[in-house]
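Much of our argument rests on the idea that a fold can be written as discrete symbols. The amino acid sequence and the backbone structure tokens for this protein are reproduced below:

___
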Amino acid sequence: MSAPTPSRSRSPWLIGGILGAACLLIIGVLVVALIAGGYLFGMGGQEDPTPSGDPVTTATDPQTGGGASDGGGASDGGGEQMALPPGVEDGQTYLTMGNGPVVVDVYSDFACPHCAVFSDVNGDDLEEMVEEGEITLQIHPRPMLDERTTPPGYSSRAANAAVCAYAETGDPEDWFDAEEALFEIQAEGAGMSPEELAGVVEDATDIDVTDCVTGETYVSWLQDVVEPEARQSTPGTPVVFINGTMAEGDWSVAGELTAQIDAAQ
């Protein structure tokens, strides 16, 4: 009689099954973790354009406001009211002096050397023709050269100072007196403080323009209304239009401009 065959132990199979199940469980956990991690990583690369707690704000024009004005107002696009010189309507790009039959437009910049020559040669003639009712003079004070002065912005500051004087009285004489004084200090004007610039105009006109100059009352009008139109209409400064047509001539020659204006009468 043969000896009985020893029965195989079930322990190895049991242990193997347990280990296999454990491995599958671990693999499953890892897969879930990887999927979750990838999702979270993807979310981390997307920036919320309007994070909570940070309100969206709209910038406003810092240059409006300041000095008082009897002129009207227009929106500057930033929700603020733009100060307009007296007699200037919304969108108007010039100051009007006189009511003569010939319309003369002058584009000038207080930082432009050729404009200083133009004013020196022709300023008195233009003022006289306005006073005698021969022309309607439309002054376009451009801040074209703002970025070329040191410090920047002198064209706007000087033009604003001249407009401030004219806005107080509406008298062409005050404009021309302020213009002459500002062109005389053109070389050093850019380095002057607003108070010093106001002093130059006050000495020339006997008009206190300190608040208007330091408050940059008309700078927005100059930069946002006058200059954009001038860039579309003119090649530079000084430029003269007579009855809507650009005039050509040597404006450094006395009598050249008045002759062309007389011919248009």
Remarks:
- Residues 11-44 form the longest helix (34 residues).
